[in-house]
Amino acid sequence: MKHGFTDFTTQPKRPHIGLIGAICLATGLAFTAAATNSEASVIHATGYHKLNGPHIGTIIIDSDFTTLDCQGYSILPNMERVCGDTGAPATDCGVLIEAVSNAQVINCRIAGFGEGGEDVNKKGEGIYIREGAEDVSISFNTFSDNRHGIRFSEIGDNDDYMPSSDIRTSWVVLWKNTFENQHRNGVTIFHAYDVALVDNEMHSNGADGLDAAWSEYIKVFDSSSTNNGNAGLEFDFCRNVIVSGNSVSANGNYPTRPNNGISFDDSDGIQIKDNYVLYNKKDGVRLNNIDENKSMTFLTGQAITSVASGNNIFMNGTPFDGSDDYCDVYEDDVEEELGWKTSMNQNSFQTMCNKQGDM
Q: What's the CA gap between 194 and 134, in Å, rounded?
């Protein structure tokens, strides 16, 4: 489904698998040796492409209906600096997905793209998805020691919720990937429409497990986000978000700044269901400037409000320096006239706070 909230609880969306499966029988291309030159390897041909050994340098997907299967082999850096936002300095990346339709990346180990810091020569992304890409599936991959595991292109200034449809990144599935020990975020989403994260693991990343901004119809199902430096799941200026069936624990371990398990700022149309949110250093679930009057449409076209149900939110808010008391649920400027406050009774938690104090 290319609109609304697709139900991924039984079968995650893989929009192009059938067609690619037919194509790959007829057209196959293998990278048979590690790349050692300074130029990126570009996939121009539609079809199924596989690695037969470790690959050094960026692989660029520049054609529709394309599968890259690493067969468990690694993609490693050589600082080619071919990725980056429009107008921004180029950076290094393992796989660059250009503005194509129906691209798939599977069974890759992508490591070492970006060492942190402000030097452009030390910045990089495991997979970089260019604006305009659509129907992208990324599954069964392992990301480690990159700046970000996966990063969506940022389009211009953050002045609007959603750029025009011809340049945004749309209909992306991240399924059964592991993001561990990135220097910043496991996954960074900008200016996207209809993105599903299903059964992913985001652990021990330097900043957020997931950071999504200026995007809508974001779904996070059956995933774990633990022991990250900042938030487990962070959403800023997002619309129509489902967070369901996840384990979010022990986040906010940055040495000088505790952070939250699940955090929403300036967002609306939120559904938080059946999650376990435990032992995060600051607040378990933090809601800031959530306006119920901005409720969007969901599946049937009926207006919805932000709701939370079936969550277990305990033992969050360990005082960082012995003076601050954080909460399992924290609210700041949350509209009360509709269903959010009532829905909180359908959850299990110990402490609930707002800007004015305990409730």
A: 10
